Amino acid sequence: MADFHQNGNITTLHNLRTNDSASLSRDLQSFATSRKISLILPSLFSELEGDALPNILHELAQVPYLHRIIIGLDRANEEQFRSAKQFFSRLPQQHIVIWNDSPRMQAIDARLAGLGLGPCEPGKGKNVWSCLGYLMACQDSAVVAIHDCDIVTYEKDMLARLVYPVANPNFPYQVSKGFYPRIGDGKINGRVSRMLVSPILIALKKVIGDRDYIDFLRSFRYPLSGEFAMRTSILPDLRMPSDWGLEIGLLSEAWRNLARKSVCQVEIADNYDHKHQDLSPEDKSTGLSRMSIDICKSIFRKLATDGTVFTEETFRTLKATYYRTALDLLEDFYHDARMNGLTVDRHQEERSVEMFAENITLAGRIYLENPAETPFIPTWARVHAADPDLMRDRKAAAELDYAEIS
């Protein structure tokens, strides 16, 4: 994907294959002497039993510039927490496993609920939010990166390229987002990004007209990538979605809070593959079906806060426009795949488009029925204002769990 293209909205940092990973690592070690770099790994216990995470840890063990690694562990009992501590003990960097389901952490969540700030829906958003709170309580990192624990093609160079733009003190970037091609097993992957997000943004522009927010999202080559790096100064006011709209929600926060020149996307890999979700057309509460609904709601809510008025007629028109746009893009992806010796299952792709079209109207109906819904976890700035001791107590609870349960 080596080229020089800039979209004029956000900066794109390419991999021109003219610099080696050792040089990047040396630069990052130099930056890290005064700007400590931490990494957050939101993880399910089930991922410890998969093929991807052992290799991720093998690669991370070779990273010299990381100050701290924070692992947020979800869906684990006490025995599984013990197992996770042992599993991650191979990391040479300072690290902690936060047991999000522990009695101590649940008591902290109850305090939040008593303040009217919870409980929050369990999931990746809450996991990342919890880890960010721990990081801010440590008060010693200038840069934080986040990536998933199911990347089967992981290499340490991905992390170096992801954090470099925000770690370099001479660069202006507050947020860096990774992009890459999603290919594997001889086919093009990334159905939700290709067959939902890209065409719905095109369709929205046709239906509701030009919006800066739409142009901003369209500037990202892979808007649903889970790889972010940020300067920690922006974290206290960051609103985290608790549903599956996390990646779109974080981009929306970047658009709301930051100048365009403070946001960049960076090419971090020649190939990327991770765990694939089921389409789940019969079950709207799981798989790509739920993901598509949450993404659509996230986009609709953000446009509404920017002054867009939605009606049932708007969503009916949007569904029809999306459907035609997505089928046109399917032809483009088929030709691209064919020229590169890859395949696209056109029947399955059209099934995806049909389900996404149905879910666009469902998400619109949910929004119209409850436009005041706020599926955001409170910002840490608001939590601190409501209970100045909570962040510190949450950090202490995580460390007591880690120290006492062995």
Features:
406 residues; alpha/beta; 8-stranded mixed beta sheet; two-stranded antiparallel ribbon; 14 helices; 12 strands; 13% strand; transferase activity; Glycosyl transferase; transferase; Nucleotide-diphossugar_trans
How would you characterize this protein structure?
GO terms for molecular function: transferase activity. It is a single chain. This protein is of the alpha/beta class. Helices cover 50% and strands 13% of the residues. It has an 8-stranded mixed sheet, sandwiched between helices. It has a two-stranded antiparallel ribbon with strand order 7-8. Strands 10-12 form a two-stranded antiparallel sheet. Helix 7 crosses helix 11 (312-339) and helix 9 runs parallel beside helix 10 (287-305). The protein starts with 10 loop residues before the first strand and ends with a helix. The model has no long low-confidence stretch (mean pLDDT 93).
